[in-house]
Design brief:
7-stranded antiparallel beta sheet; Jelly Rolls; mainly beta; about 110 residues
Length: about 110
């Protein structure tokens, strides 16, 4: 069965979408949507953490697939006590626990939500 996504067709361009906070408790964390299927919620986005930014202290789990590639900087998973750096990748199925996170120096990531 072929799955149809309703993301817009876009050739190479400089993203110009607004940066938005992904939630009221995520001070210093910003998302820029690159492409999104409004019907399914599937999206490709850039996410950046300002230096010292952190998620709320709870462990994170969601009901969608998430793939993340760190493009620059570092991100520490406080629950695991591990720091991840540029070039590292995560693939999280629905329900996978991760975080909370903090970035001392800041970071940028490419995120796919499915």
């Amino acid at each position: 069965m072929t799955r149809i996504l309703n993301k817009p067709e876009k050739e190479f361009h400089h993203p110009a979408g607004e940066w938005q906070q992904p939630g009221p408790k995520n001070n210093g964390i910003w998302d820029q949507i690159l492409a999104q299927d409004a019907g399914s919620g599937e999206a490709t986005l850039l996410q950046r953490y300002e230096a010292g930014a952190a998620t709320p202290p709870e462990t994170i789990a969601h009901e969608y697939w998430e793939e993340v590639m760190i493009l620059s900087g570092e991100l520490t998973d406080l629950r695991l006590g591990q720091t991840f750096t540029a070039g590292m990748y995560a693939c999280r199925p629905p329900g996978m626990k991760h975080g909370p996170y903090r970035s001392e120096s800041g970071c940028s990531m490419l995120v796919f939500i499915r």
